[in-house]
Amino acid sequence: MLSISYGEHREDIVAIDARSSSFAACVATLANPLLGVRAHMPNASPRSRRTQLLLAGVYAAGVGVSREIIALPAPAILRLYDVDTGLPLEPASNEPVVVLALDQATVSSCEQFQLAGVQYELTVTQFIDAPDQAAVSTQISLKRLGTGTAGHRLRLDYGVDGSASNEYLGACDWLTARHYHFGQSVVDQASFSLIVDTAEQRLRYDVRVEQADSTASSVVSWRQGQEGCVASVTLDFAAVSQHRLVTHWRVGVDSDQTHPDTFAGDFDVARIQGCHLSQWNSLWREHEVTIQAPHTCTDLGMKYAVFQLLQHGLGAAHGVNGTISPARGLTSTYHSGATFFDTELHKCMFWIWNAPDVARALIDYRYTFIEKALQFARSTGFCGARFPEASNDQGGENGPHYVLSYPEQDIRREWSVDEVLHISADVSYAVNKYWAVTGDDAFMASRGFDILIESARFAASVFKWSESKQAYVVNSVMGPDEYHYHVNNSFFTNYLLRWSIRRVLSLLDRPGFPGVSGAQRRLWQAIADNVYLPWITVDGVAIPEEFEGYAALPDTRLRVVKQRGPQFADEVERDSAEKLQNFDSQLVKQADIVLLMSMFPDDFSAAVKRAAFNYYEPRTVHESSLSYGPHAVVAAHLGETHTSADFIARASRYNLDFTPVDDYSNGLHLSAYAGAWQGLVEGLSGLDIESGQLAFRPKLPAHWQAYHFTLQFRGQRLRISVLGDDELEIRHGDRQLPTQRGEDGRIGLKEGHP
Prior knowledge:
Blueprint: E1 2-6, E2 9-14, H1 21-27, E3 30-31, E4 35-37, H2 46-50, E5 53-55, E6 59-61, E7 67-69, E8 76-82, E9 90-91, E10 97-101, E11 106-115, E12 118-128, E13 135-144, E14 153-160, E15 166-168, E16 172-177, E17 180-187, E18 191-198, E19 202-211, E20 218-225, E21 228-236, E22 242-253, H3 269-287, E23 290-292, H4 296-313, H5 341-354, H6 356-368, H7 370-379, E24 402-404, E25 411-413, H8 416-419, H9 423-438, H10 441-462, E26 464-466, E27 471-473, H11 491-505, H12 518-529, E28 535-538, E29 541-544, H13 571-578, H14 592-599, H15 606-616, H16 628-637, H17 641-652, H18 654-657, H19 670-684, E30 688-690, E31 693-695, E32 706-713, E33 716-724, E34 727-732, E35 735-737, E36 739-741, E37 747-749
Parallel strand pairs: 1-10
Antiparallel strand pairs: 1-2, 3-4, 4-5, 6-7, 8-14, 9-11, 10-11, 11-12, 12-13, 13-22, 14-21, 15-16, 17-18, 18-19, 19-22, 20-21, 23-32, 24-25, 26-27, 28-29, 30-31, 32-33, 33-34, 34-35, 36-37
């Protein structure tokens, strides 16, 4: 059974067998910004073994895409068997147990084996040493159970093999590729170094295996070959009932500065583990989110979401070129390690309020490759900077233009790479929010303003004048809703592009802001004043139309009864979605209008938001993991706190509750987790910036007692506690800060307090 725990609370997630092992390994992934590594997983399937280790920045020419992140081998237990007979230990009938301890950032597994009537128990505990090191420690205990039984001489093989490989588009196991090969290895008594070559980089693994119990005797021998390097540890149970081993390994790009004596000196795993636990205690004090509710599943779900975000982000601020945030982090090769708009609209929002330097690193990645965006715009007939819909580690366009299915031998056209035009505006939105929260004028002067201007230049080049509408239009596009393409005037796309232009126009007279020509300024103003936005009337209220002509499409069966996971009405809908077909009904994957209203809550009246929410939500499948967060935000703004809480739970527990576990390959949905945080903080607490100051409209769902979170604002770490509707406490350290209610009902800090 895979379980997650935090302190005294523990929840079982899934039974572990060959079919579920890849899912369990994914959920229990340990990571930092440098690497993501799967834990030891009992009953591991071939798919589970295929993804073992992902390193940030290690990519290669892809299968089906231009580049993909490489699935690499990780040092692990490879085999457990009898020395004298060669027979493997057979799993006992007891179900293996794997526990991901969120508060400790460790994964522990326990499984039992039997051999000739003797039972043994294998316990493995793994953790990543530090947020800024690609180093992993593992504690291994093999124990003979029972008394009066004859012991065996057992052998445990620990090392690196070549079973890791990439699947086609990160999801299809019928076509795989291995992007590495083993080079030279150097072995001594307790450790080995192994070179792993990829097409672009030379990696070095330093692996150490040591006996942890000096009273037990063991013999270590080594095998080297074309398929890796293995340490064989002989464990004699004739005199002792338990053997304990510790392993420690590091991996990184090999260079002249890498010395062969990496593990020189004493190796103290207890000290390393103590530092690890101390670090995570500090991280949780700074970033913990707590939901006090009768059932712990909501609280554990949110803690799991925050844990995975913290793992993948903290420490990512190092380096001048910024950091790419793969869609699945370092948990899976799905989406090939490319980044999408969810980084800016969800993950960036989490980091802006939790660790702004991480958000800045994500934006720095965009700026580093702005020349690529300028080239991409020119190559597709536009001006300014067009950031790709799927952007790889080199800033290039990385989406598959065609998808091959097997065994049907069907080739499907993927239109999003050509027709999604809102990405640059999304990047501008993140830049603007970062500026509003941090007040980082130096960053804006050095790069932020350039991003805003070039994104606005792109937006202006996208709009075309329509004589028939007497307005500027954008035809043949795809919005965030991927069920409809070739559509005209996506409300979301037109609105975001217009906002991008208007934001720059509002800054042109600001001292230090780069100027544009008078002719260009007049053109941009004319475009911004005359953008076509489609509206429809629903129950007497005018609401934004998903895209021009959407309301004229045949209606779909409404999703009135809510459930976890995608709400397909039948297999026909599910099959059409899998085949990337253009839907001819009002069914949407995720409601673009709800997302837009969550981003600009003050731009739409409460009546419009309520009518639009009530209209689009029952027509939304929520197949995208990005869908729940915006719905949670808007529901909270409408006072529908129970609905908001439900969407928060769905987002935070996206991978825990309803993901099909059989032969899983999809990876963790980090942006859904960020969306859950947004639902809680931007939605229920009503967090906003008003005249450069924090402002809240706190609401508490009736079935919750309270909720607490932290945020960083203008250099200060604050702890926010929502104790009831319009009842909120703000603390800085041990001091409660005085608050006041504004004329509009928002709660903020009293004047004179930071």
